[in-house]
Design brief:
By secondary structure, the protein is α/β, with parallel strands linked by helices. It has 16 helices and twelve strands. The strands form three sheets. An eight-stranded parallel barrel has the order 3-4-5-6-8-10-11-12, surrounded by four helices. A two-stranded antiparallel sheet has the order 1-2. α11 (313-325) packs across α12 (347-374). The structure holds D-xylose (XLS) and nickel (II) ion (NI) (2 copies).
Length: 434
């Protein structure tokens, strides 16, 4: 059975190609700064948006009419699995990501959900063996079911916390069984709507305990993948605790988790937090917390998670500079977490979205690598901070001098002179490579 009979496996054809569905820049075997493009990106298809989302919005039902979405039985899930792996293979995506509810119906009880998950895990493993597609991360959906209306880990009712623990235990163990590289916790409803009914301190303690339990269980079962939390400031709740990279870093430190958990940073969530994506990457990287990436972007005019495929080379070049500066994405990867638009109803549209995004990231990587190799930008920044590496600079930073001793240095030194930050020069420099 094939759902994409007219689509041939996508190939690299180079920049001059006239084929719409071909890679012009993404050549998985091409070596850039010592690593292949496949190693730089570790692209992953998001099961939920690509296979499960029907094209619905607040004002109307799904528009895509996918046959496997006609019901919620195990048989429908199996049909969806077939299409999923046909898609991953033809696209040439090395990884995928899933929530428990994406791959299997969870039924009416935890027991039923666990049984279905076990049955499905064997089928997924078979598909992974047959195609060579690997699992970037698994996650539990702790936000759709009405039981989670007031949060999962942060719910005022401990029984909900326990149910969520049950879902996470199963998906963590399944992720381990499938050789997943990471496990993600996105705090979908871990926040609140009104302070009138909310104890923030209590809820944060619950969330800290929950993440600690996940880390303990990871070690108990011998899962060596990364645990990641995904910052997002709002939506669905008005205030979410994992607001941005900085708030997540503070949260992890308060609960002693900063060595155990990293961040899955999403482009659209950065926008919602009022940051650029490169800021979020740079902040996470500066704290040693950059773990993985969701590449979906927002819309400059719409204030919600529009989950669009990336399409700005200029923006992505700035992001790639941060990722290269971090030494790459490590065990993480580039998860699309993006949906095609509601009017993009043809199966081929799924390929156009993913192929274009992979090519765009590759093009941005080439531009960023050229900037790194050119060295002018790095040289400028190094020079800007050079004072901290010589003279009394290192001692001031290392705490070897008191406030009064540092002040004494200033008494004797010539008055400091302002220097240009050269922003326009640097912006022009970047544009020479984009
Ligand atoms: C929603 C999130 C979600 C996570 C996985 O905004 O981006 O898709 O990535 O639960
Ligand atoms: Ni995401
Ligand atoms: Ni999102």
């Amino acid at each position: 059975m094939t759902f994409f009979p007219e689509i041939e496996p996508i190939r690299f054809e180079g920049p001059a190609s006239k084929t719409a569905l071909a890679f012009r820049y993404y050549d998985p075997t091409k070596v850039v700064l010592g690593k292949t493009m496949a190693e730089h990106f570790r692209f992953a298809v998001a099961y939920w948006h690509t296979l499960c989302w029907p094209g619905s919005d607040m004002f109307g039902p799904g528009t895509f009419g996918r046959p496997w979405q006609a019901g919620d039985s195990f048989e429908h899930a199996v049909q969806k699995l077939d299409v999923a792996f046909e898609f991953f293979s033809k696209l040439g995506a090395p990884f995928f990501c899933f929530h428990d509810v994406d791959v299997v119906p969870l039924g009416e009880s935890l027991r039923e959900g666990w049984a279905n998950m076990d049955r499905m895990a064997d089928l997924i493993a078979g598909k992974m063996d047959a195609t060579g597609v690997k699992l970037l991360w698994g996650t539990a959906n702790l936000f759709s079911h009405p039981r989670y209306l007031a949060g999962a880990a942060t719910n005022p009712d401990p029984a909900v916390f326990a149910y969520a623990a049950g879902q996470v235990q199963k998906v963590l163990e399944t992720t381990h069984k499938l050789g997943g590289a990471n496990y993600v916790l996105w705090g979908g409803r871990e926040g609140y709507e009104t302070i009138l009914n909310t104890r923030i301190g209590q809820e944060l303690d619950q969330l800290g305990r929950f993440v600690s339990l996940v880390v303990e269980h990871k070690h108990k079962i011998g899962f060596t993948g990364q645990i990641l939390i995904e910052p997002k400031p709002c939506e669905p709740t008005k205030h979410q605790y994992d607001f941005d990279s900085a708030a997540c870093a503070a949260f992890l430190r308060k609960y002693g988790l900063e060595k155990e958990v990293k961040l899955n940073v999403e482009v659209n969530h950065a926008t919602l937090a009022g940051h650029t994506f490169e800021h979020e990457l740079a902040y996470a990287s500066s704290q040693g917390l950059l773990g993985s990436i969701d590449v979906n972007r927002g819309d400059p005019q719409n204030g919600w998670d529009t989950d669009q495929f990336p399409n700005s080379v200029a923006d992505w070049t700035l992001a790639m500079l941060q990722i290269l500066g971090n030494g790459g994405i490590g065990a993480g990867g580039f998860n699309f977490d993006a949906k095609i638009r509601r009017q993009s109803i043809d199966p081929a549209d799924l390929f156009h979205g993913h192929v274009g995004a992979m090519d765009l990231c590759a093009r941005a990587l080439l531009a960023a690598a050229a900037i790194v190799e050119d060295g002018t930008l790095d040289g400028f920044v190094a020079e800007r901070y050079a004072g901290w590496g010589k003279g009394t600079g290192p001692n001031m930073l290392a705490g070897k001098l008191s406030l009064a001793e540092i002040a004494a240095l200033a008494h004797d030194a010539p008055a400091p002179q302002p220097k240009s930050g050269r922003q326009e020069y640097l912006e022009n420099l970047i544009n020479r490579f984009v």
